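WARN retry 2 of 3 for item q-0093 after timeout on previous attempt; input resubmitted unchanged.
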Amino acid sequence: MAEQQDNKKQINIELSDEMAEGIYSNLAIITHSHSEFVVDFIKMMPGIPKAKVKSRIILTPQHAKRLFKALQDNIQKFERLHGEIEVSESEALPLNFGGPKAQA
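OK item q-0093 returned
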């Protein structure tokens, strides 16, 4: 009987080969309304002034908070194994990524 209850709690999630490859993102922009959070994942490339949104995820506020807690938990686990992740809060986002500067 307990085994049947455990099986009812499982979720079968399918991951296609294409989706399993993932999408690289080095910038996320988060906006929200009273009913949803929108997270745009963007890939910026050095020396290219235009960046494209590679993926947009729309979440309810409740799911956004669950995601926040899950990320926080995973970051703590990562840092216990690999050390603190260094993030410089004083540096501005390098919009040109160190690429060539425009000249007139």
